[in-house]
Amino acid sequence: MEKNLILGIESSCDDSSIALIDIKTYNCVEYLKISQEKEHCEFGGVVPELAARLHTAALPKLLEKIKQHFDNIAAIAVTNMPGLSVSLVGGVSMAKALSVSLNIPLIEINHLLGHIYSLFLDCEAKFPLGVLLVSGGHTMVLDIDKDKNIKIVAKTGDDSFGESFDKVAKMMNLGYPGGTVIENLAKNGTNKYNFTIPLLHDKRVEYSFSGLKNQVRLAIEECWDLSQTDKENIAFSFQKAAISHIMDKLSKIYEVKKWKNFGVVGGASANLVLRQNLEKLCSKFSANLLTAPLKYCSDNALMIARVGVEKYKMGKFISYQNLEIKPKIDKLCL
Ligand code: KG4
Ligand code: ZN
Fold first, then answer.
1. How many Å lie between the centroid of ligand 2 and the Cα of residue 139?
2. Strand ordering across the sheet containing 288-291
3. For residue 97, what is the domain's CATH number?
């Protein structure tokens, strides 16, 4: 019988996840994830050593649950870039061990491509496409042409969009990750602080969130006893400035690129206020806004398996000896 599944493995940060996807139909056969959010929460961010230890415990447990499918796995797709090295090594080691013991080929996967393909989990991918990638580690605007060549049009020079939510939450002792907490608090807030939008009158098409984070820090320091209302107003004012910054630069890029299809991906693409702003921008240019299902915005192995299908069809395998972890990347390609 022809093997029909790709196994995806993801462990680039604080989520251990595996998934099985059908090569022909893109049907998700299994999807499992153990998130470490609870364990990192008290530290206000990801603690690398703890993440590594938790991946080592979680990944074999997940694998155990899908072993009835081992005979049908045609290839193993594993995230090996970019990410925390001590986290990446967990998934890559397991992929290598499995590849050798079951004699299954390996495919290396760029985590960021995974996020892009979260737009096409159960269907053919369609390009050309403009993409806003907003996660805990990255903030980028990407231009993907019809041949799937990817150009980075804008990126952040310091913190990422998601990371700035995490840092603002940490400053108010709201735990980790901060995205959803801040978005929820903002629902009851007002723009009391009217923070300055970063790089508003600057011609550079790039992002920066560290100055905004400092504005928030100063505002917090001025409220010597931070009330619930203060937190709500700070969350509202911060989120408004951060999203205005994203939209200000993106609108300028859009005037030139005029994409007919535009996607938003990454953990922070779950932010509904951001999505509403993007809807408006896309409708102004009569473009379609593509989003991933909320469940698959944050890190997951299904998106990794989905890129795996793409590379499997292109015959892009990598040998056991050549599969390395690459914590940083300088270019993005399939
Ligand atoms: O893609 P992801 O799961 O992990 C990385 O690859 O980094 O993204 C996680 C990030 C965290 O920084 C989290 O705070 C942020 O996404 N995030 C949000 C929201 N939900 C998650 N940021 C803003 N608003 C949200 N609703
Ligand atoms: Zn991610």
1. 11
2. 150-155, 139-144, 129-134, 261-265, 288-291
3. 3.30.420.40
